[in-house]
Amino acid sequence: MTVVLPAALAGAGIGAVLGALGAGGAILAVPALVYGVGQPLAVAIPTSLAVVALSSLAALLPKSRRAVVRWPVALVFGAAGVPATFAGAALGGLLPQRWLLLAFAALMVVVAVRMLRGGGDHAGACRTSDGSVNWRSCLPKAVAAGAAVGVLTGLFGVGGGFVIVPALGLLLGLTSHEAVATSLVVVVLNSLSGLVAHADAVGDIDPGVFAAFATAALVVAAGAATVSSRVPARVLRTGFAVVVLAVAAFVAVAATVAPESLG
């Protein structure tokens, strides 16, 4: 019972980010579970994957969002990403936990910098004049991007939406709404395959921690989505980036000077 409250508080923080920005909160889930709840890294990763899969499914529930999913694109990314999650999980098993968290901190810095730089819809290098996708020229890039996201999912327990969304816009010219909705499908597929890849640790997931973490994340995300509509997007992105940079610094320092905290 002593870990349920910290799990709920950590989940609420993740839900606030997910609700406000629509993506990105999962990047904070593993540090929150390791340092906020006190879980070993090997357990925090599958717990994070389970929460990411559940929250992404919930985000897909609105009919208006499902209607703009580009299913062929999602399946291409998923087909490349699902097997790559197993490669990422296998690679993670070979790395010392200290170095894995240091690499995770570096990934957080990349995410924060991207959020600070902002960005909008891209014309799409693969869009044709009639609005369709030129798969012949862009299929290799799409497969490579999907595989890269899969590796990140298996390695770090993140959904990868912060990579998928800009890739869908830049490579295939999807609008922001199409990219976000389509990325949710890819995140669900990758997260579920990541859970299978980490099957040896799934049995160690604490049901109380998972329930408190997931429930708080989903409930707070719904409220944050409503409130965030009144806040400028740039303010939200900047605030999120600052939090991610602070957490990245904490993770890097803790992994360096206090590796025993990893469990």
Write structural notes for this entry.
The protein has 263 residues and is mainly α. It is built from twelve helices and no strands. The model has no long low-confidence stretch (mean pLDDT 77).
Q: Summarize this, please?
A:
The chain has 263 residues and is an all-alpha fold. The chain has helices spanning 4-21, 29-37, 41-59, 63-66, 71-94, 97-117, 135-156, 161-172, 176-197, 199-202, 207-228, 233-257. The mean pLDDT is 77.
- DSSP strand content: under 5%
Radius of gyration: 18 Å
Characterize the biggest β-sheet. none
Overall pLDDT score = 77
Structural class: mainly alpha
The DSSP helix count reads 12
Q: Can you write the helix and strand succession as a string? A: HHHHHHHHHHHH
Spatial shape: globular
Low-confidence stretches: none
